[in-house]
Amino acid sequence: MKIEEIKYSIKNVFFRKTRSFLTILSILMGIAAIFTLTSFGLGIQSYVNVLAEEAGANLLYIQAASFGIPGTDENFFITRDDVDFIKKINGVDKVVPLYLRVVEIKSKKQVKYNFIMGYDVKYFDFFFTGFGIDILKGRELKKGDLGKVMLGYNYQLSETIFKKPLAVGEKVELNGMPHEIVGFVSEVGNPADDANIYATEETMEALYPEIADKFGMVMLSSEKTTDPVVLAERIEEKLRKYKGQEEGKEDFYVQSFADVIETFNSVIGVLTGVLILIAIVSLIVAGVNIMNTMYTAVLERTKEIGIMKAIGARNSDILFIFVFEAGLLGMVGGVIGVIFGYLIASSAGEIAASAGYSSLYPIFPTSLVVGCILFAFSIGSLSGLIPAIRASKLNPTDALRHE
């Protein structure tokens, strides 16, 4: 019996093509929006997880407590003595102090301003692993490489930073001083990081003599047996006392990589949640449209309902027909919405990648596809429930008399 009821529901959905199309259109828009936003959210989450796996969860950072990009607060710095003190704290493994500044870089009369980072080259592997990058072309910086730099990924591309791409062996001017390019690093996935310049401590001190032994940021790792979150609290307490600062008034803060990931995920979660909430509002409107469509269907087919009841159809059979019909409208809208969502997300991902945001990419797990379609079917079924209940309770005699 259920097979016949399903065939009857399908026939009625496709018999009233215009009305069904308009109802399906309203739900597919909401599903397409949810599918697109969720696919990007999952993609970002995947990127963060990969970064965390590559960088290691035992990383910590010491930065200025003020707002802004690390290294831009000239009133904050960590001295070489501070670094030596940090190295002695129980549980600390590697410590890499970093010089950070905005530098003028010039190539063939074109001038740009980007970030330059100076580090101790003996910690090359630790430093680059922590930032999720590696050497792509050329070589790494070596001890004594004064006047030599490595450049971010985007310097190899035309019409991205400079009109013409740069190559290993070429020279650029930093603050008016010539420097040789010895290598390029792999892509990070956003224009700011892929425009970074990397130099030795000696090169940074030559460019900025006033910052010698005054670091804008410290990157460190915990020992394998030490919880990085616990170590962050320990460093903050001991460094505060060492610098003679009051609790709550420190000019620095210590953050574990786990905290960074958690904060990032929270922000992304809130943004994605707000956008999906907006999309759900459109689905609620779609649900109202389905309910209105089903009420109309009940009125138009009152006599048919009477005939079905007269030949033995039960209330549950009538209920199933109209609930399934409403769910079918939702499911068709869901399937088309997923297809549209996939096309939109894929196109947006390609546009983001071409703009330098390769880290912003969508992923499409089977659970997302099936989940969106089932969600659309559920919205449709629930929206059609009240009209279906009304149809199932019609008196067959009154229904047969209906004109």
Summarize the topology.
Elements: H1 2-15, H2 17-55, E1 59-64, E2 78-79, H3 80-87, E3 92-107, E4 110-119, H4 124-130, E5 135-138, E6 148-151, E7 171-174, E8 177-185, E9 197-200, H5 201-207, E10 214-215, E11 217-222, H6 228-243, E12 252-256, H7 257-300, H8 302-310, H9 315-354, H10 366-383, H11 385-392, H12 396-401
Task: Tell me what the structure shows.
The protein has helices at 2-15, 17-55, 80-87, 124-130, 201-207, 228-243, 257-300, 302-310, 315-354, 366-383, 385-392, 396-401; strands spanning 59-64, 78-79, 92-107, 110-119, 135-138, 148-151, 171-174, 177-185, 197-200, 214-215, 217-222, 252-256. It is an alpha+beta fold. It has 2 domains: 2-51 and 262-401, no CATH class; 59-225, no CATH class. It starts with a helix and ends with a helix.
Describe this protein with a few key phrases.
elongated; 12 helices; 2 domains; two-stranded antiparallel ribbon; 403 residues; alpha+beta; 6-stranded mixed beta barrel
Compact description:
The protein has 403 residues and is of the alpha+beta class. The protein folds into 2 domains: 2-51 and 262-401, no CATH class; 59-225, no CATH class.
Shape: elongated
SSE series = HHEEHEEHEEEEEHEEHEHHHHHH
Mean pLDDT: 83
Count of helices? 12
Q: Strand tally, please?
A: 12
Q: What characterizes the major β-sheet?
A: 6 strands, mixed, barrel
Q: Tell me the fraction of residues in β-strands, as a range.
A: 15-25%
* Lateral arrangement of strands in the main beta sheet: 3-4-9-6-8-7
Detail the poorly predicted runs. Answer: none
